Amino acid sequence: xxxxxxxxxxxxxxxxxxxxxxxxxxxxxxxxxxxxxxxxxxxxxxxxxxxxxxxxxxxxxxxxxxxxxxxxxxxxxxxxxxxxxxxxxxxxxxxxxxxxxxxxxxxxxxxxxxxxxxxxxxxxxxxxxxxxxxxxxxxxxxxxxxxxxxxxxxxxxxxxxxxxxxxxxxxxxxxxxxxxxxxxxxxxxxxxxxxxxxxxxxxxxxxxxxxxxxxxxxxxxxxxxxxxxxxxxxxxxxxxxxxxxxxxxxxxxxxxxxxxxxxxxxxxxxxxxxxxxxxxxxxxxxxxxxxxxxxxxxxxxxxxxxxxxxxxxxxxxxxxxxxxxxxxxxxxxxxxxxxxxxxxxxxxxxxxxxxxxxxxxxxxxxxxxxxxxxxxxxxxxxxxxxxxxxxxxxxxx
Length: 397
Ligand code: ATP
Ligand code: MG
Prior knowledge:
Layout: H1 2-19, E1 24-27, H2 29-35, E2 44-47, H3 51-57, E3 61-65, E4 70-74, E5 79-84, E6 86-88, E7 100-102, H4 106-111, E8 121-122, E9 128-129, H5 134-140, E10 142-143, H6 149-155, H7 158-170, E11 173-174, H8 176-185, H9 194-205, H10 210-220, H11 246-255, H12 262-266, H13 271-289, H14 294-299, H15 302-314, H16 325-333, H17 347-354, H18 360-374, H19 382-394
Parallel strand pairs: 2-5, 10-11
Antiparallel strand pairs: 1-2, 1-8, 3-4, 4-5, 6-7, 8-9
Helix pairs in contact: 6-8, 7-9, 7-10, 9-11, 11-13, 13-15, 15-16
The protein binds adenosine-5'-triphosphate and magnesium ion.
């Protein structure tokens, strides 16, 4: 298992650093997740060895973030990020420290971390070092800032959104003074790059409790300081997160009064993300206004149709047709033709049969043929289509 490898590699790295006279521990998310009995995303090591010393201990390393003290150790089981204990200097811009200082004490390093549940360490013999009550907060399901919340959010405004994101991932409550800190410093969110805010929303959208996060964003007033013009948060109670964040973006867009992808431009979503969300909005709107024709089933991907349908249900615009997701699958599968390239005639055929020159009529006619086939008035058969085409032409089309 990959995760197991990451742990083994990290413990190996710790042993070797210790053999060379240094101190080293596992820190951050991996400690939190292992105490919860969940697989960790990445198993990070912190040490009192400075980067040059780390590089001298291991044969294979890569400089991934030397300036902030990180060396990647290429362990055969899994690469391990090894970061020198550090504190952060002053924060001029509410997002990044102006400089980092390497320190020799683990306690100093843990103190600069954001939340108590993220500020624990695990030694090579699996002892937990917990200086801020992280274990208890983990047991009680609490997100609590390390130290004075307002100060911590002033230093780095992204932490406010991180608190909310962790509450959504873990289903935890944000402790009162931490939450107050967010309410007080919400305005600082505008210092944070849109891409980093988007990345937090992506995580919220695939988390266990997006509704919790969205409610916290509204209650803390962070919504007023999100990028772009005022964004409506709306109710996420019925929204069920999927595996992919575009579902969340699509739902978010549908909750805006104008129901378009404008907020996705603001948050710098990718073109692919915007494309699928545009499709979902279009499918949603046609479903609740006049229902889907065979043409809609043809044009939209199954995933788009299903998502639009489920959203219509959440947003209480329940359509009369289709009646279920299974019905959507059937309707799509039963189409006479699945994609344009399945059409057995081309523009060349039409030119040959008509003796006319190419032009905009070609595309129009091919579209018309497609509609006739989808509506089962014509079969996808060369001869049949030719007869239809010639008789249509004779009737003046
Ligand atoms: P995930 O499972 O999402 O990766 P994580 O806890 O590992 O969660 P990371 O963003 O990978 O989160 O950061 C690793 C650790 O670094 C955190 O656990 C925390 O101790 C510290 N950290 C990260 N970002 C900040 C921040 N903005 N301010 C203070 N500490 C931070
Ligand atoms: Mg991590």
